[in-house]
Design brief:
The structure is a homodimer. In chain A, about 80% of the residues lie in helices and about 0% in strands. By secondary structure, chain A is mainly alpha-helical. Chains A and B meet through helix 1, helix 6, helix 7, helix 9 and helix 10 of A and helix 1, helix 6, helix 7, helix 9 and helix 10 of B. The structure holds a DNA duplex (30 and 30 nucleotides).
Chain lengths: ~200, ~200
DNA sequence: ACATTTGTTAACCAACTGGTTAAACTTTTT
DNA sequence: AAAAAGTTTAACCAGTTGGTTAACAAATGT
């Protein structure tokens, strides 16, 4: 067997499948289009991944494994809440600028098949809120921030960071933005969102 | 022609199409399933709506025409920003609890076909930000709120209100919530989100 | 050297999909 | 009451789709 090419073909398929699935979704994607983009015969897709569903799951798990570490930036480091929020907002936004299809792909497919998330939760490294909750409660007790439910705060942080990518076409339409001004708008959010959150919770 | 039944068949199709399109999206929806759900022959779909694309557009415009007035709650009334935010947050969340598929459907299909939004913008009643911007700037000048870009604020408001519905499966997984605790979580947001926003921008 | 395993292709297939057609039935018009 | 217009159905159709097969090519083991 050809060691190098073996890995390459399988990877070529995965790369092509990522492109097609992320832009068209499970239902809109076509096996033939993936094969064409990978520059190989359609039968190879089945040779390496058996069927569309398994190929899709490989792509999806890959995508989620990119997102999970981003979430752990805010959930599992030991810095102050203020630092967590600034760090996460900046990193996450920067990361998403480089992977613009990712949030929509994950949200869309998670909604299409709610049971699918159960498979992900079995993975080690699936993000966990416990440490974040403790930190929030600790800072409340120290009088550093005003009382707030940690889960609500976490969803607020996610919302403010993820929504601008999910709702890109809506935002462009509502605010009359073209691609350039939209990007500038997102760029500004790298710091503005963190300030917005911290303003809301920090005590003087 | 039968006046009553004429309207009814067309409406039955639209209702069935709404169900199927909103839960499966354009690509995942099947004309046969819509016909079955409407209890009629598949040919009738084409008789009334010509083809899948036009039927889809009818459903989509219908859905968007439900959303637009919700946005105008915050954009076009004359009350204070604080009142706008409280009013919008409460109304929007309450509305979405009753139409849970709506946000995901709109966001998903807007992302699938970015050009599609252009058709919507031609509609009269398409939400417009101008009045909201003036109000924000006015309250900044009056010293009521801290300086903030009106568009950023508006996207923040949208994000905090819409994301919890878009990211429902993700939130349920990350926070270990079942359907019941998720609903309680959303219910609390009707007031908490408004407080979170106002806390962030209001000056003492 | 040669048999075995692994990788690749072209051709094929059954099921499905959106859409059409022609005829039947119903309501409205004249 | 008959013609015209509108509504509904069953059967059909061509193109597409995910997936299979059988034969061929390349690498590997012995």
């Amino acid at each position: 067997m050809k060691k190098e090419k073996e890995a390459t073909t399988e990877q070529q398929i995965l790369d092509a499948a990522k492109d097609v699935f992320q832009s068209k979704g499970m239902d809109g994607a076509r096996m033939q289009e993936i094969a064409d983009k990978a520059g190989i015969n359609k039968a190879m897709l089945h040779y390496y991944y058996r069927n569309k569903q398994l190929l899709f799951e490989a792509v999806f798990k890959n995508a989620f494994s990119l997102l999970a570490p981003q979430l752990n930036i805010i959930l599992n480091d030991d810095s102050s809440l203020e630092h967590k929020i600034k760090n996460f907002t900046f990193n996450y936004t920067d990361f998403m600028i480089k992977h613009p299809y990712l949030p929509n792909f994950i949200i869309q497919e998670l909604n299409r098949n709610e049971d699918f998330v159960l498979k992900l939760k079995q993975n080690t490294g699936f993000p966990n809120l416990e440490k974040f909750k403790l930190k929030v409660d600790a800072e409340i007790n120290e009088g550093l921030i005003s009382p707030i439910d940690a889960e609500q705060l976490f969803v607020n942080i996610l919302a403010l960071n993820i929504f601008p990518f999910l709702g890109k076409p809506l935002i462009k339409a509502l605010a009359n933005k073209d691609e350039k001004t939209y990007k500038e708008f997102i760029e500004r959010r790298k710091t503005e969102v963190a300030d917005f959150i911290i303003n809301s919770i920090k005590l003087p």
